[in-house]
Amino acid sequence: MSDKKDSFLINRLKSVGWAFKGALLLLRTEASIQIQFFIAILVTVAGFYFEISRTEWLFQVAMIGLVMSIEGVNTSIEYIADFIHPELHASIGRIKDVAAGAVFIASIAAVIVASIIYYPRFF
């Protein structure tokens, strides 16, 4: 019986390892997520500097996670679309545009949250 528990635990650890590998791959290879990561570092430093509240930290961390996660999904969709249909195709273009639109919507929401948090501190 302990073998099944060990097997489950080992499989979960492997899954976490693969997820970490995927996150590093994304950060190393994708310019858009590198920019978003840089912005995440800036607002994190700003959060410490301005001593934002616990609630503001929750919103800030959630928005950073949302934008970077959606960017990862968008990148995956682009890779799959390019793999399935490498040449230009209207439907593939539409799929990629919709995925990019999701990143745009999350990014706008993040900018709004950041504005609500930091505008009063700057002005």
TrEMBL record:
Membrane topology: Multi-pass membrane protein
Amino acids binding substrate: 12, 71
GO cellular component: plasma membrane
Keyword check for Transmembrane: yes
Binding-site residues for ATP, renumbered to this chain: 12, 30, 78, 87-89, 96-97
An individual GO BP term: phospholipid biosynthetic process
Membrane-spanning residues: 31-51, 98-119
Annotated binding of a divalent metal cation, by residue: 30, 78
Entry superkingdom: Bacteria
Active site: 71
Locations listed in the record: Cell membrane
Alphabetized UniProt keyword annotations: ATP-binding, Cell membrane, Kinase, Lipid biosynthesis, Lipid metabolism, Magnesium, Membrane, Metal-binding, Nucleotide-binding, Phospholipid biosynthesis, Phospholipid metabolism, Transferase, Transmembrane, Transmembrane helix
Swiss-Prot/TrEMBL cofactor(s): Mg(2+)
Gene3D superfamilies in the record: 1.10.287.3610
Molecular function in Gene Ontology: ATP binding; kinase activity; metal ion binding
Keyword match NADP: no
Family annotation (Pfam families): DAGK_prokar
UniProt remark on cofactor binding: Mn(2+), Zn(2+), Cd(2+) and Co(2+) support activity to lesser extents.
Entry-linked PANTHER family: DIACYLGLYCEROL KINASE
Family the entry assigns: Belongs to the bacterial diacylglycerol kinase family.
Protein name: Diacylglycerol kinase (ATP)
Species per Swiss-Prot/TrEMBL record: Gelidibacter algens
